[in-house]
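Your task:
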Amino acid sequence: MDNFRNISNKYRRYKAHVSVLGTTQLHLRNPYIIAWWSAAFPGFGHLLLSKYLRGYILFIWEVVVNVQADINTAMVHSFEGKFELVKTDLHPRWMLMYIPVFVFGIWDSYRTCVDMNNVYLLAEREDAPFNSYTVGSAEINYLDKRNPIMSVLWSLFMPGLGQLHIHRVLMAFFSLAWGIVFLYQSRLLEAVQFLFFGDLQKSTAVLNPEWLMFMPSVWGFAAYDSYINTVENNKLFEYEQRTFLRKNYQSHSFTIKKGQVIAE
């Protein structure tokens, strides 16, 4: 770790950093995918970019304002064709506050993704060394390879477990905490229990649709985030291993010669 601090002022850009809270890295992303996740749930696009503070602010804002404006309830009534109820559900004082921040989240995540892609290309060209192993009083973290499918499966059991699988501690804590809030408020687990008992009517009646509408986005994002980061962490591990072996064990005079085609 001391060696990393010593070289940290010698280079302008780094592709990755391994800390006790997780592995943060730059890699190419599709700006449209990032913008789509911001539209699905404000803050998700920024969290995919490892812009945690901005993502957490937008996420909490979405939950508070959405609940106060009764947006999810209005959406459920619109799905049911009850458009008169939609008009009475929405609260203009909160709804008009919701729109500009929602649009900002989509625009800012797209803009930030384009900028970070450019920074990645510069960091790739600079090829600065980065740490691959860290030991702290609370945790140990290091680059290794994990199975992306396992990350998805654990995320489907409970949002946040896939992030724990790949040591994304901040995202894991955030996803687990809010997953508990949404499950409790939506009463989804009670509905599942009644469904196992064969009481379909009670299972449907016990659900709170206002909070239930958050769950598909949260569950889907947890699975997608854990999968993408597992894949990218595996690539980073392979890159670091390849660089280390080439630097320490490959002869400087080694060259790959082009094969010759011998005509018959």
User: Anything to note?
Assistant: The chain has a mean pLDDT of 89. Residues 78 and 86 are 6 Å apart (CA to CA).
